[in-house]
Amino acid sequence: METRTNTERHRQRQQKIKERVDSRVAAATERKGILIVFTGNGKGKSTAAFGTVTRAIGHGKTVGVAQFIKGQWDNGEYNTLHQHNVEFHIMGTGFTWETQNREEDIQAALAVWQESKRMLADARYDLVVLDELTYMLAYHYLDIQEVISSIVNRPAHQSVVVTGRGCHSQLLDIADTVSEIRPVKHAFNSGIQAQSGIDW
């Protein structure tokens, strides 16, 4: 008898949850591209973005990627996704503490941004990823108003993913979805080397 009562209570709880979820699904009637921001100090922001890219190409979507910060090292996401016609534009200078040349970094960022703007204005792209863009704004390599304008005025169906720590408040304000990834533990802090296929 007690098992039957527990089973019935469980069914009733799940039915209430189902009704709430169904109601929210029914209320979501607008159809448009969205701006997603993956930010925070934890590991996994670019990983989340490229998971979204993989999902998009699995549905036959057209995707463009701009990678700011990335250097000349082997790039696992490029190696896989380029084979599936994902367009990549990679800054290629590496981390700013390695280059230590502000002017060269700015020129490299601007070159990738020009490609980003082109993709953001092109209705053929269903998804545009601006990987590590937040740093370009924090370092004042790119103009925040130009970036905001390009994202806001993109084709209505196009979605955009922005990644990086310390996302600018104006980007957060216009985003539809923001996920902040919080560090709890990181292998590197225990002296474990970054690994191909896991970290890049």
From TrEMBL:
Gene3D superfamilies linked: P-loop containing nucleotide triphosphate hydrolases
UniProt-annotated location(s): Cytoplasm
Record EC number: 2.5.1.17
Pfam families listed in its UniProt record: Co_AT_N, CobA_CobO_BtuR
Catalytic activity, as annotated: 2 cob(II)alamin + reduced [electron-transfer flavoprotein] + 2 ATP = 2 adenosylcob(III)alamin + 2 triphosphate + oxidized [electron-transfer flavoprotein] + 3 H(+); 2 cob(II)yrinate a,c diamide + reduced [electron-transfer flavoprotein] + 2 ATP = 2 adenosylcob(III)yrinate a,c-diamide + 2 triphosphate + oxidized [electron-transfer flavoprotein] + 3 H(+)
Pathway: Cofactor biosynthesis; adenosylcobalamin biosynthesis; adenosylcobalamin from cob(II)yrinate a,c-diamide: step 2/7
InterPro entries hit by this protein: CblAdoTrfase_CobA, Co_AT_N_dom, P-loop_NTPase
GO MF entries: corrinoid adenosyltransferase activity
UniProt keyword annotations, A-Z: ATP-binding, Cobalamin biosynthesis, Cytoplasm, Nucleotide-binding, Porphyrin biosynthesis, Transferase
Keyword Nucleotide-binding included in the entry's annotation: yes
Methyltransferase as UniProt keyword: no
Protein family: Belongs to the Cob(I)alamin adenosyltransferase family.
Function recorded in the entry: Required for both de novo synthesis of the corrin ring for the assimilation of exogenous corrinoids. Participates in the adenosylation of a variety of incomplete and complete corrinoids.
Protein name, per record: Corrinoid adenosyltransferase
